[in-house]
Amino acid sequence: MRVKYVLSEVLVGLWRNVTMTIAMIITLAVSLFMLGGSGLLFQKVGDMKDLYYENIEVSIFLKTDVNPQQQADLDAKLKSDPLVKEVTYVNKDEAYKRFQEMYQDAPDLVNAVKPDQLPESFRLKLVNPEQYKNIYDQYKDTEGVDEIVDQSKLLDKVFGVLTGIQNFALAIAIVMAIAALLLVANTIQVAAYSKRREVAVMKLVGASNWFIQAPFVLEAVVAGLIGSLLGLVALAALKVFAGGGSMQALEGLITPVSWGDIFLMFPLMAGVGGLVSAITAWVTLRFYLRV
Amino acid sequence: MALRLHRVDYRPVIQLEQVTKTYPKASRPSLDNVSVSIEKGEFVFFIGPSGSGKSTIIKMLLHEVSPNKGRVVVNGKDVTSMRSWKRPHFRRSIGCVFQDFRLLPNRTAYENVAFALEVIGKTKAVARRVVPEVLELVGLGGKEHRYPHELSGGEQQRVAVARAFVNRPLILLADEPTGNLDPDTSIEIMRLLDRINRTGTTVVMVTHDSNIVNQMRRRVVEIESGRIVRDQARGVYG
């Protein structure tokens, strides 16, 4: 009886104040969508860091007038350096090939550049990509070295942008969450007010606190769960619609978002949505009903 | 074991020991060093003018307010030091009736009484067995399915009494139960409370209905400005 009673009270409660319920659910959905999105980005950035740092290279470009002796010395030095895992020499032809690949969309540029104009280079894989600075200090003044470029510097910029987007999404999630919390608190207050007579009688005859609170708290939890479900639908919609369009350009850069990744966000969204709503409802009741 | 039970029976069910209560912002205490002891099965009137502190006593017995000083013991439990989470269970041993009935308007007489049982975890089957019985006891047999607005004031108060008594509490608290009723109906309600008292339930009633007090000839505790000025067995309103 008690379970049935509580459940029917929950449905009645959500229906009684249906406009407020909808507002609450939409706000929760947007907040949880943003939370899920920033969770996805966090996960992706992590994946990408693993992927890219694995392949990251430090390039030591040589001056065009470098002589073979200098080049051989540098080669030997690099090969014996404990910080360096792997050294590859890239001559002008190979550099040109890479250049062609990289700028295949801009044939004018490719045609304008001749293999001779491209510098030779050593491509290094480091034991630990973060020790770039040591390499830089050690080799920057070596004879014949023109420039040392660390790819991870470039990547850091990309990751910086992605982390920025992630933080932005998280900030919106938090702001929306505050709005959602206030709506939950208000809805619970209205619900408690409309049931004040029942609550007074329940307190009088000694109904346990959880029994008095359960319908209200569950009402908030149900709203939170519906909100997280809608947030999930929004994430899925984003994948379906944006995945084909503007995101395509980033396909090569960002590791693709799979359905699995999206569904993995659901426990997070549902958990946060349900728990935060429940706690808000409970705290509201503590103040409002003094139970 | 038998000895213990015997002793428990004669222990006061309600005991106020030098209780003082001053509400915040109040200039003088609502209760000032009040000591009262009520034994099991007694019928006690608390009388006195409005604001004398009678209702504060009821609230204290329900663990709704706590005294600033002194001790309140109900059913052998020290209410003063009781944690608030123990309050619900404690309340189940106390029935309560008010001047304004406090019935749920959208439930029938039967449902009002059954609600009180169901929210403390009793099954519908128990309610089906017990509720008609108690409604019969309060003289509402045949009116189980009336809504409060279809009942007279006296009948509504009977529903309230049925709700307070359905759980067979050790104590029945009545805060001006006849305050909204005409004299004849009041007498009927008093007969009902008297019948309940005869089942062994301790009845504590706050009132300023002198007629009733004079007719009942029960113990009278008179309070004035927070102090007990009279405590008389078989008393009158004065």
Automatic annotation (TrEMBL), chain A:
Residues 56-148 form the FtsX extracellular domain. The lineage of its organism: Bacteria, Bacillati, Actinomycetota, Actinomycetes, Micromonosporales. The keyword Membrane applies. It is a multi-pass membrane protein. Forms a membrane-associated complex with FtsE. Gene3D superfamilies: 3.30.70.3040. This is Cell division protein FtsX. GO terms for cellular component: plasma membrane. Belongs to the ABC-4 integral membrane protein family. FtsX subfamily. The keyword Secreted does not apply. Part of the ABC transporter FtsEX involved in cellular division. GO terms for biological process: cell division. It is found in: Cell membrane. It comes from the Bacteria. Its main location: membrane. Keywords: Cell cycle, Cell division, Cell membrane, Membrane, Transmembrane, Transmembrane helix. PANTHER family: CELL DIVISION PROTEIN FTSX. The chain crosses the membrane at residues 21-42, 168-193, 214-242, 262-285. It comes from Micromonospora sicca. Residues 171-286 form the ABC3 transporter permease C-terminal domain.
